[in-house]
Design brief:
2 copies of one chain form a homodimer. Chain A is α/β, with parallel strands linked by helices and 308 residues long. Chain A is 37% helix and 25% strand. The first copy, chain A, has a single domain, classed as UDP-N-acetylmuramoyl-L-alanine:D-glutamate ligase (3-Layer(aba) Sandwich).
Chain lengths: 308, 308
């Protein structure tokens, strides 16, 4: 069983969708990644920071999923990172209403000693300098480093972003961000340009249209499961990344063929995440439900054409 | 070998894309459908109308692909249907610059006697009344009737459109049109509503995001091959439909499992269509090229997760 280090926000989210709104609920990239990766029974540790206002029950929730939380710093006198957003009617776009960095503004991640030899590192969306500082703490080169990022850092910290992109193995990025990062409309050409920036593997997330995995000339396309209703997309990308990272950590196999499976697991887990507000659906997801949906994914995508 | 009746426009197109522009070139739904279906060596007949200005070489081109053209009426004193459009930079949207109906305005399709017992009928995009009149000429109920349509008929002939939709087996429609026809954003719910209108099978085309095949609770998702460059999307939807119809006519098998393969063949053929202006790429496409790209499609989509 491989060790997995997860770095990212542990946060409060307040969400408005056409279906309703929430008060401050549990959110954050490391939270969604951790809940998703926990389905693979890997030895995972979350590295993050929260304030004194963060409820013990949320920390217990992560611990109960066997996520080591010794790397989550609690700044007693500080407040927890807070994000609030409102989704538009098509659920594909949203407005940020509030971003309060709070304790995140001075976050210096510390990887617990026991996890500095982890095989897999999942760098959730954060300032690229913070992501870099985690890599520098690793005592040996991890087998696989996965990075998630977003357009915000392309706008305001592009040089730092390029530094961290150059040091990682897999980048997960959405389609519009891949286009922004490379100036290329074709995702095939964009992926090629991102390869040149460092990452051997490029995962482009297309939301309801699925995800693409590139490794030079190899391409794999996992569609998203068509859903009756997307209730709340918050955390879907992180849940995808958590499933991907968890599956790789569990199997220890970084071949392209096995990464295809990691993408399928990521997509499967993300398809649950969007069914309820925040982490609600992920908190109580059973192995049986995941198994059943994987079968649906096979039916959705597999066909039998005999070719010589 | 099954017989296939193809109804649709045979036309002149003039196309502008960011890569260049054409004079009047060969176009039309029946043309693209026919060229695509011709890859399956089925006994196909095109039913259409052109004017005296239509070059014999274009008719010969269809004949040389073993498409029976006795159902293409030539109105000597009339002019051929002409469409001109300009694609935007993203190639996903376009403006129509010119639509001259010409001989199409009074088109009364006549299915050649030899083809009134065809197993498969492909109704390309036309006025729903014209599509209906073709069905009425069939001497026995075809094994499968496939209909393509567009938003234009939803805007100006919705009642007639519903009449023909009620009489067919498979509808191919793009995602925005499926939403317009049903008032539902979720494609899963939209497909269910279209089932209720008549068609047992619903194919929703999502352009660069692939195509979905629905049969009540069964769903299949064929992604589109990621392309370096989309040179000209004109005719891609018709080429998809032609591949779908041709494969069904060849195999004579209308099971859901076989329709999955029909969708894969349709997607494969459409991926060639967009590589050059108009029909240029389809005119010279070889079996070897199709075979190679089908292998690419398998690599793109197939994975091996062992599930009980």
């Amino acid at each position: 069983m491989g060790k997995l280090v997860i770095v990212g926000t542990v946060a409060f989210d307040a969400i408005e969708t056409p279906f309703g709104k929430t008060d401050k609920i549990l959110g954050g990239a490391a939270t969604f990644i951790g809940l998703s990766a926990s389905h693979f029974n890997v030895d995972a540790a979350a590295v993050s920071v929260v304030g004194g206002d963060f409820p013990q029950e949320y920390l217990d929730l992560l611990s109960n999923k066997n996520i080591d939380i010794s790397g989550i710093e609690i700044v007693k006198e500080g407040k927890t990172f807070f994000w609030s957003g409102r989704y538009h009617n098509d659920m594909n776009s949203r407005d940020t209403l509030v971003t309060e960095l709070n304790t995140l503004a001075d976050f210096n991640p510390v990887v617990p000693q026991d996890y500095r030899n982890a095989e897999v590192v999942m760098l959730g969306n954060l300032h690229p300098i913070v992501q870099l500082s985690v890599l520098e703490q690793m005592e040996e080169k991890p087998k696989l480093v996965i990075l998630d990022t977003m357009n915000f850092w392309m706008d305001c910290a592009l040089d730092d972003l390029h530094k961290v992109i150059n040091k990682i193995d897999v980048i997960t990025i959405n389609d519009e961000e891949a286009r922004q990062l490379t100036g290329e409309y074709s995702l095939l050409v964009a992926a090629r340009k991102i390869h040149e920036m460092g990452p051997k593997y490029v995962v482009i997330k297309k939301g309801e249209h699925g995800a693409l995995l590139f490794n030079n000339d190899n391409v794999f396309y996992a569609p998203a499961l068509p859903l009756e209703e997307v209730f709340d997309p918050t955390g879907a990308g992180d849940t995808f990344a958590g499933g991907f990272a968890g599956y790789i950590a569990k199997t220890g196999d970084t071949s392209f063929e096995n990464m295809k499976n990691a993408v399928i697991y990521g997509s499967t887990l993300a398809s649950f995440c969007v069914e309820k507000f925040g982490t609600e659906r992920m908190q109580n997801l059973t192995e049986g439900e995941v198994h059943k949906r994987l079968l649906q994914f096979k039916q959705l995508t597999q066909f039998e054409i005999e070719l010589a």
